[in-house]
Design brief:
The chain is mainly alpha-helical. The chain has 2 domains: about 140 residues; about 130 residues, no CATH class. Helices cover about 60% and strands about 5% of the residues. The strands form 2 sheets. The chain has a two-stranded antiparallel ribbon. It has a two-stranded antiparallel sheet with strand order 3-4. The longest helix has 22 residues.
Length: about 290
């Protein structure tokens, strides 16, 4: 299943919102911030990704690939959805050499050979020599995955996610009453305060069937923390904001969570998005 720009016709509108958000946050930031050059690199990255996605909408796939390549220079850890989308473009344009390069990046984050048996990824096999080399190199890149990923943290977040689904399942209301949600939120808050926001480069990919999941185990818990107005979330907001600047967190995820901060408990919806000048979208109000 495709992700990112290929997954929704609204991607361009939201990407424009993301770019505006980066500049908006830069004007309203507080506390410790990443270095200016890091912030500038992150902005340039998102601007280029936006341009690449617009080229995709115009079916200028070769140009989009070139822009993706430029964007990846600005972040040492490009967003997985962007790597995957560029990989798909390379396969479509039969540019197998860079396609294998992006495939190896996914292996380093936990993708298995079985993942490449699906359409259209199995078209990589059309380059027989490239595929043979890819199979040969697979154990090497998989070993890097086992060396770089924090599996203790990965397992801890997965366990917290399982608890979260029980806590917030409508049929398990008793979990909330017994205080499980407070324990859950406290545990995740401790992790975020100690380690920051862990993205795929810290805890690896999560794949369901043929889909690279854009939402990581902690994301739904963070959203519930905001929806339930769990204590003072300013310190968590600052960590997430800094992660946006550092290119570790998708701006949309941060903005989505922040919107819940100013809504009633258990608010689910997008009514807090308002349209402003030049088709930009920002949360309302007091953000």
């Amino acid at each position: 299943m495709l992700i990112g720009i290929f997954s929704t016709k609204f991607a361009t509108k939201y990407r424009i919102f993301f770019i505006f958000l980066l500049y908006f946050l830069n004007l309203h930031s507080y506390g410790q911030k990443p270095k200016v050059d890091k912030i500038d690199s992150t902005k340039k990255y998102h601007l280029l990704i936006n341009d690449a996605e617009l080229k995709i909408c115009d079916k200028q796939f070769k140009t989009a690939i070139q822009i993706y390549d430029k964007a990846f220079v600005y972040l040492k850890t490009p967003f997985v959805k962007d790597i995957y989308n560029c990989l798909l473009l390379c396969i479509y344009e039969k540019k197998y050499k860079p396609a294998f390069g992006y495939s190896r990046k996914l292996i380093q984050l936990g993708a298995t050979l079985k993942f490449f048996d699906q359409y259209p990824l199995y078209n990589l096999k059309n380059d027989q020599d490239g595929w043979v080399n890819f199979i040969h190199d697979y154990p090497i890149f998989l070993e890097q995955y086992y060396k770089k990923i924090d599996f203790n943290l990965r397992n801890e977040l997965m366990n917290l996610n399982i608890i979260d689904q029980n806590v917030f399942c409508p049929r398990q209301e008793n979990f909330k009453i017994s205080g499980f949600s407070e324990i859950l939120f406290s545990d995740l808050k401790d992790i975020l305060l100690e380690q920051g926001y862990p993205n795929e480069y810290k805890i690896g990919l999560f794949i369901e069937n043929d889909t690279v999941m854009s939402e990581l185990p902690q994301d739904v818990i963070i959203r519930h923390m905001y929806q339930e107005h769990y204590g003072n979330l300013d310190d968590i907001s600052e960590i997430l904001k800094r992660s946006v600047f550092e290119g570790k967190l998708d701006p949309f995820k941060y903005a989505n969570d922040e919107m819940f901060k100013h809504q009633p408990n258990n608010f689910y919806g997008v009514e807090s998005l308002v349209k402003v000048k030049d088709n930009f979208y920002i949360p309302k109000p007091n953000f």
